[in-house]
């Protein structure tokens, strides 16, 4: 069972690198194999929505972190094996790759060495001390002990093989027992991912959240921060049935978007069963996570930014209408329209969200006046990121506080930058 999300959310959280920024994926990616990289990307695109699955994965990774497990296979060995096993795949041009005699020989010897190392790993390696992996470990031991693979273990790598032996092993490993070999490789890739994330967890002191059942309405994060920042300011926020909606205010540059990304990234990563950048965290499993931080105009259909926002809200309404438990985040809701419409729309929508008490919402807004009408809803909480004035210079604490800000420093910043003076001088010069 996978958590529901979409490309907008994946882009908002900057999970994958682009030309102008790195990605959260890169922080967790310490894999040694191409297959491991692909599997890790799949996990990032498909978080889990089952308490059992999330807890099981987190337990395995935490155990490997505690054991300080290292990936036991040489990357070059896996490269040779992957090339060997991919021989029957069609390339982008529709042609099938054909391996030469030397490549087949290298592939066979690499595969024999890998299978020996694999048997050693599952029989005597750290996996023995990870109870959550017992079922998978037993499956691997069963595969490796099948009579069909006995000739592999009669060899002692790295021995020289005759041409006839290479041909026989080639047929055995790539054709007759291909499914078994691919299953073993998939397990190796899985271990590559888990060990990679375990090592990253130890290096960065990430924590493993406590997972609560779906529908229990728990979301508490202490000391959350964005994992890409060198000197982050941690923040804490608790939500639940008694506070299922958070209305967040604060001036530009006060750190709203950074906090929103930090918090929602933790929620998303926690659903992967991965450790998160926080001091502690507990959450109930959700059906979906959707964020709206950087919503692009859809110029292809002639849609304005406001209409793109409306379509986004409509999509959230449809998801919520099915009774699903969803985490929803809107940064600067209805910024694409005039202040009056934005005010009315923000109040109406936030009140409607407050009716859906099995979901959780964070709405950030510059329209602080909306808070007066929202206070009548007991399950709406109010938080802000403050601006402190040092004379005429605004200073930002980046630390979340309860309440509603009355900070209005836009004109001070405009004057500090001398924009009006520049315009006046330009007029005189004209």
TrEMBL record:
Residues 243-429 form the DNA mismatch repair proteins mutS family domain. GO terms for cellular component: cytosol. It holds the Pfam family MutS_V. SUPFAM superfamilies: DNA repair protein MutS, domain III, P-loop containing nucleoside triphosphate hydrolases. GO terms for biological process: mismatch repair. GO terms for molecular function: ATP binding; ATP-dependent DNA damage sensor activity; mismatched DNA binding. It comes from the Bacteria. The keyword ATP-binding applies. The keyword Metal-binding does not apply. Keywords: ATP-binding, DNA-binding, Nucleotide-binding. This is MutS-like protein. It comes from Pseudobacter ginsenosidimutans.
């Amino acid at each position: 069972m996978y958590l529901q999300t979409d490309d907008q959310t994946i882009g908002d959280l900057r999970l994958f690198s682009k030309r102008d920024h790195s990605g959260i994926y890169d922080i967790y990616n310490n894999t040694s194999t191409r297959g491991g990289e692909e599997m890790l990307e799949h996990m990032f695109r498909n978080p889990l929505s089952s308490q059992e699955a999330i807890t099981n994965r987190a337990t395995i990774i935490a155990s490997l972190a505690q054991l300080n497990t290292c990936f036991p296979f040489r990357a070059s060995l896996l490269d040779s094996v992957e090339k060997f096993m991919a021989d029957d795949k069609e390339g982008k041009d529709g042609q099938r790759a054909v391996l030469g005699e030397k490549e087949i020989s290298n592939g066979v010897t690499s595969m024999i060495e890998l299978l020996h190392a694999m048997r050693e790993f599952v029989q005597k390696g750290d996996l023995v001390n990870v109870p959550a992996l017992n079922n998978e470990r037993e499956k691997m031991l069963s595969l490796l002990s099948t009579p069909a693979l006995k000739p592999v273990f009669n060899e002692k790598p790295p021995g020289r093989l005759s041409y006839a032996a290479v041909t026989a092993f080639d047929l055995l490993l790539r054709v007759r027992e291909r499914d078994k070999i691919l299953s073993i490789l998939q397990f190796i890739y899985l271990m590559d991912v888990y060990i990679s994330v375990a090592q990253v967890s130890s290096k960065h002191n990430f924590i493993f959240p406590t997972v609560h059942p779906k529908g229990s309405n728990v979301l508490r994060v202490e000391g959350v921060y964005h994992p890409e920042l060198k000197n982050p300011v941690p923040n804490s926020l608790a939500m639940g049935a008694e506070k299922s909606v958070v209305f967040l205010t604060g001036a530009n540059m006060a750190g709203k978007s950074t906090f929103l990304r930090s918090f929602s990234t933790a929620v998303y990563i926690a659903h992967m069963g991965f450790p998160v950048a926080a001091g502690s965290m507990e959450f109930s499993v959700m059906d979906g996570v959707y964020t709206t931080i950087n919503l692009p105009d859809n110029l292809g259909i002639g849609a304005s930014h406001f209409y793109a926002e409306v379509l986004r809200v409509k999509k959230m309404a449809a998801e919520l209408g099915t009774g699903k438990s969803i985490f929803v985040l809107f940064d600067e809701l209805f910024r694409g329209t005039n202040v009056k419409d934005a005010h009315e729309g923000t109040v109406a929508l936030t009140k409607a969200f407050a009716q859906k008490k099995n979901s959780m919402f964070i709405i950030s807004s510059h329209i602080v006046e909306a808070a007066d009408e929202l206070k009548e809803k007991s399950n709406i909480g109010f938080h802000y990121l403050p601006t402190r004035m040092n004379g005429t210079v605004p200073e930002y604490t980046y630390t979340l506080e309860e309440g509603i800000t009355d900070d209005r420093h836009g004109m001070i910043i405009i004057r500090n930058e001398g924009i009006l003076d520049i315009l006046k001088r330009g007029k005189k010069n004209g």
